[in-house]
Amino acid sequence: MNEKRLAEFRAFLKKMKSYEEAIGLIYWDMRTGAPKKGLDARSEVVGVLSGELFRMSVSEEMGSFLEEFGSPETLSQLSVIDRRIVEECRREYDRSVKIPPKRYQEYVVLTSQAESVWEEAKEKADFAMFQPYIEKIVATNLEFIDLWGWEGHKYNTLLDMYEPGMTVSKLDQVFGALREKAVPLLAAIMESGNKPDTSFLRQTFDKEKQKRFSLFILEQMGYDFAAGRLDETVHPFATGLNPGDVRITTRYLPDDVNSALFGTIHEGGHALYEQNISPELIGTPLCTGTSMGIHESQSRFWENMIGRSRAFWNRYYPDLQRNYPGQFDNVSAEAFYRATNEVKPSLIRIEADELTYNLHIMVRYEIEKALMSGDVKASELPHVWNEKYREYLGIEPSHDGEGVLQDVHWSGGAFGYFPSYALGNMYAAQFSRTIRREMPDVDAKVEAGELLPVKDWLAERIYRHGKLLTPNDIVLQVTGEELNPDYLMDYLTEKYTDIYKL
Amino acid sequence: MNEKRLAEFRAFLKKMKSYEEAIGLIYWDMRTGAPKKGLDARSEVVGVLSGELFRMSVSEEMGSFLEEFGSPETLSQLSVIDRRIVEECRREYDRSVKIPPKRYQEYVVLTSQAESVWEEAKEKADFAMFQPYIEKIVATNLEFIDLWGWEGHKYNTLLDMYEPGMTVSKLDQVFGALREKAVPLLAAIMESGNKPDTSFLRQTFDKEKQKRFSLFILEQMGYDFAAGRLDETVHPFATGLNPGDVRITTRYLPDDVNSALFGTIHEGGHALYEQNISPELIGTPLCTGTSMGIHESQSRFWENMIGRSRAFWNRYYPDLQRNYPGQFDNVSAEAFYRATNEVKPSLIRIEADELTYNLHIMVRYEIEKALMSGDVKASELPHVWNEKYREYLGIEPSHDGEGVLQDVHWSGGAFGYFPSYALGNMYAAQFSRTIRREMPDVDAKVEAGELLPVKDWLAERIYRHGKLLTPNDIVLQVTGEELNPDYLMDYLTEKYTDIYKL
């Protein structure tokens, strides 16, 4: 084991991480308030830095590091951290070097054009505009999958990019189990005579007051403002530049008290993950969340299992009332709790409640799988989309703008990403079951405004590991079993049976 | 002339510019609101990108471009722009390659340590703490000057870094002429029985109102908010990332109506320069102000020749009154104008008025010159400083914190920088004289709120050229003569004779 070379490898990776951090900051700035007229030049800066980062990732230097440290014998001599670093780099390296640079470059241009075409197509509800692009994007993905190699199902190779180890057969099983219980639960809710009143959620809410309350809740969650900041954007997001700088954004709707609040808690959950990664992983490729699904489990856990819980509102509703003087005088904590948990099938994924959200994802999953197996052609997308919405949610879009064109993901080629959202919900419920076992008074703690023990529990078991553990390792290690969709359905069934008096 | 190689050279320079832009954005972010806990990692990012930028600037690649395009014969075949680019790169290249990398690295570490020691030393008014650092910094500068080469006076080599072409003999002449008239003018002002009342400047001013008025004046000046933004920092600054993204900051003091206002106009002047550089210079090393002195002339022109003029306040004082309802009811425009032009010798440079500011600079100039010639030793600095203040301004610091330790510049090794401030004042007055000749109704225009013709005049003659013209070229071309300190003294004499009824 050549210690000097290992130090060189670590320095090389740290340099790559510096480029990533610079690019991350530039994107944050572009989205939060960079002057419009400077954006063309700024895009070139991103191009230069990204190009350099990509060059390093597939360089001979990287290749020789991987060769040197990647043999089974050397791997076994490495520390646990270094071993995982080598594995992760190998994974990225293999993926990148298999694509001819020219084809990759063409694909980048294609998806960048497709994103602006999609924007216009969505606006005009004109799928025909977008069809040639989605056709080429699907074709290029299939071409790349052949270069990367695949097992079982072509779609597996894409799933693995966002959720390492995830497969079609696993997803078919968990989504099947989920759907089996979700559909009748939704039907029962729809037939319930005990629907919550939600009218008071739609008043006019002062932006400064919304911001103040968002900041208050973030602070309660243990979000570290010396290692982050809250800004305002049209599309909320979280970005971890390094564990000491994890920024989030939210959006304040003037007529909706919950949009900013739950958006902030959601992004705050992502941020807690990134802020609490172990310092020993800083400067390595392991210094980030282990997968999109596990990351989403943390945003969902805080947003739903904590933020939409009765215990939470028993504690924080008086604060909310005080924050909006006079606006909730005649609304009880219980009424507010029930209203924030309204279930209602809708056409738009990002507005969906905890239950129907998963059905939106299943529609997309089924379609992506069929696109990759060749069972559905791009031209058939609008028809298939509408059919699946009727089948899964019982409603149908009136035009493609609120149908097949609603999400940006496909225009950027992000096939395989959508399942992460539903996986996040399932992981979150499974973690929630575990914390209740290990910390039986968790509801009492939340009701007492003690959210920090919850954060610490998650930090100890999940956050600090970053990418050192795989998603499957995390779930196994924390909960004692693999991903199990029953916990989500048990949680939802219990919650809605109570709220809707089923 | 190898067109392909020229294109490669241009691409190489554009890449360097991208690194510069990324570093500039990171610094802006660090100063405007980056979370504290992320700063250590962020400094490493800056280190990686700056290192790469420096590596490119002294690379064999750069060397071979300069060799290829730098011969008199090839130079003569290049376009005016490309010729200046080669000259500028040669200048930077020669400067950088002559310093052994190890010595440069040690100097970077020294000045970085010196800056934090200086901060503490200033706080404690303890020059002895700082003395060993300033000694080493001076010694290293002298060592570097020998490596770079010098003519006439060692200090010339440092002056040339900030103001290409500037020399001790030129500065001795202009500062001598300036002082000859400034000292008696100051004495006359001090003896005047017609001092302005300034009490109304020190009320409590709402921050949001200060911000609103700053934004209003910036807009009047023609600052393009689609190509910039205004933020808040302890030390105001302007940064031109590219002509489409030129950001400024200001600082709102609760008890001073003028600090934010004139700070904003000052930085706005810098920003107008950078926003209006010709698009054909984008992505080249010429896309910035031509020197520190010319840059400062633009901030000073807007701050003083426009912002502290009677015409300006005849137009904008009613707006100011409306902006602070009730706070200026009993103050006339004339009284406000006179108050903003109060002259008063003080110990602190950055609080100085238009007249005494130049004397503060001359003290520093004399000291820097003497340090570089060996006539003054670092250990003698406090004594020399105090003596010069008595001589030039008639007052003496009570401790070194408000004396020799007041400025950050020397701790960073920025010898040769201070004269730019006074040069800026002189250039500004000279430009002001020219605009009055070419646009005789300029005061009437300002009084009518027509500031855009002024901006356009400056853009056409100065801003658009960026670094394509040298400072001397600019002054000659715009005013028809070389730098002439009489214009500043004429301007100040006329202004204060009127205000103080001398």
Question: Which parts of chain A are unreliable, with pLDDT below 50 for 5 consecutive residues or more?
Answer: none
The radius of gyration of chain A is 23 Å
Considering DSSP H and I runs of 4 or more, what fraction of the residues of chain A is helical?
A: 55-70%
Mean model confidence by pLDDT of chain A: 96
Question: What overall form of chain A do the CA principal axes indicate?
Answer: globular
Element pattern of chain A in H and E: HHHHHHHHHHEEEHHHHHHHHHHH
Could you describe the largest sheet of chain A, including whether it forms a barrel?
Answer: 3 strands, mixed
For the largest beta sheet of chain A, what order do the strands appear in spatially? 1-3-2
Q: How many helices of chain A does DSSP assign?
A: 21
Structural class of chain A: mainly alpha
Query: Which oligomeric form is depicted?
Result: homodimer
Strand count of chain A: 3
Amino- and carboxy-terminal Cα gap of chain A: 64 Å
Q: Of all protein chain pairs, which has the greatest interface, and how many residues does each chain bring to it?
A: A-B, 39 and 39 residues
The fraction of residues assigned to DSSP E strands of chain A is under 5%
Layout of SSEs?
The structure is a homodimer of 502-residue chains.
Chain A: H1 3-32, H2 39-57, H3 60-69, H4 72-77, H5 80-97, H6 101-124, H7 127-148, H8 154-162, H9 168-191, H10 207-221, E1 230-232, E2 238-242, E3 245-250, H11 257-275, H12 292-306, H13 310-323, H14 333-339, H15 356-373, H16 381-393, H17 419-438, H18 442-447, H19 452-461, H20 471-479, H21 486-499
Parallel strand pairs in A: 1-3
Antiparallel strand pairs in A: 2-3
Helix pairs in contact in A: 1-2, 3-5, 6-7, 7-8, 9-15, 9-21, 10-11, 11-12, 12-17, 13-14, 15-16, 15-17, 17-21
